[in-house]
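Slide 14.
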Amino acid sequence: MTSLTLKNISKSFGADIILNDVSLSIQDNMRLGIVGKNGAGKTTLLRIVCGELSSDAGTVSMPQGIRPGYLRQEVEGGGDATVWETMLAVFDQALSLEKRMRALEHDMEDASADKAKWHSMSHEYERVTKAFEEAGGYGYKSAIGGVLKGLGLGEDVYGRAVGTLSGGQKSRLMLARLLLERPGLLLLDEPTNHLDTDATQWLESYLKTWRGAVIIVSHDRWFLDQLCTHVGELSRGAIDICAGNYTAFAMKRQEKRRLQEKAFEHNQREISRQKKVVEQYYAWGRSGGGKNFIKAKARERMLEKMERVDRPESEGRAMSLRLNAARRGGNDVLMAENLAMAFDGPLFSGLYLHLVKGDRAALVGPNGIGKTTLLKIIASRLKPTDGKVILGKDVEISYYDQLQETLGRDNTVLEEMRGAFPNLTDGELRRSLAAFLFCGDDVFKKVSALSGGEKGRLSLLKMMMGQGNLLLLDEPTNHLDMDSREALEDALCDFDGTVLFVSHDRYFINKIACRVLEMKGQSLTQYDGNWSDYIAQLEKQKTAQPDADTGLTKTAAAKQKRAEKEQEERRKEAKKRVAELEAEIMLMETRLAEIESQLADPSALDEKALCAFSEEHESVRRQIDEAMQAWEEAHTMA
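Slide 15: predicted structure.
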């Protein structure tokens, strides 16, 4: 069943075309992730779908009975209603029915002597009771408590007025309410922005069982990987959708960009060749013979009509980040001994940390546990209440602050760079800024006027040019678009120094970390590997309970162990199958592009060849769809 159809949607703001002839169809139980650069029109598209914004052209169609539910990025206001009252409003129908049930119970007791009247009331009571059950009446309190707890809102906020909550708490409350309202089409705009890792994982599990269509705008690639059945990229006003999760999309996009770049280079070479031919004809014409001038003019007309292939969008617009340490330093980079920190009360104590050269360690844990505080202590921005930090020989720290508090708000971008690197000329600074997408008059913008992403890029540039061999990064991917995140990941993977970072971006952690440091309670526990390894070790700890705790007999425990071993074998086979399918899909995509290149000029083919290519195109396309479906199934098992 189709839950949503968009046909030729267009939207402009002034001279800026945001959406241009966008069409798509969303099926029931489809989970579509939408990605794209900041300003590409992702939020605009959601607002048009939910009716909050009108399009300039095109139509939005939904079947009767399907209603959209929209979670905005930022929630304002709130009023005097309490958190619990706000959630109870979802169950107004159930509460009304419950009130009617109590009244009927009272009336039935009074009418016990009137048999006919009592039977009439009992039939109504049966009907109301059934409706009450269907409206979730018997479980609404536990449903409310479960969703609020899952999203990190405890009982301590139930009685608080919504208007007194923080922006993040309001967003989580509105998400909780939306989930219990269960709209037929769920529209989520950056739903993980205000969630810690535990709450994000809870939301993933909840949405995996969601019955209905979901559209998710998010920069959280791990979240998209876990949930999406399809991913669409908004670019230049158009949307391109592929089946599979974010990893499948990224693989296909990379191959598509490679083919586009190849086509662009071939097109440029052909244009250059034709220009040289024209020049040669003119040269020959001057030495005699008017025919050469005629040939030159004919070639020029052909050149004017020649199709121009656009350069892939990322070309020249991706952040160019290269991290190099000015000093190599020794093997021991950092030693933290018996670290403790307290503000109004103890935050952590007795922390021990040892980093060696080449370590890429992720610092994880719930919000408020002290991760940022620990980074600031290591960076000498805060003094611990106890313990000490010892840096190794020739260690130089470069610190990335998630709030960009080190940037001067009243400086222009160029002035900020001049202050940090006074020995460099304006020309050198502007070339560096251009590599981070600050071009032309952008360098004269005030820091206070920059977007979150622009401030992030400016801070990353300062960090890069600082050439420290120990990088301390506090939520470095916040506000960065996908291309900038990938550029940062590639640079960190190539960096030969040491990195300690705080991040909620599990995709980023998985790609960068070789160690995970978990802050829990007031202690620090170390795990080898990346995010996937960390999760696997936590799961192993959960299942490694003594048989006495599980209540299993030795026979049952042995049987369970065999089942787990078989499951692990199946998981290994699935991982192997995923890799095989990815290679097959890449080859088929390449062949498809070759066929499409042949079909692009039908006049060059005879009827037999045209039919053969058309049939092969359909066959390869079908094989790709089948392989992508098999990839999804294997990836789920892996």
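Speaker note: The chain has a mean pLDDT of 84.
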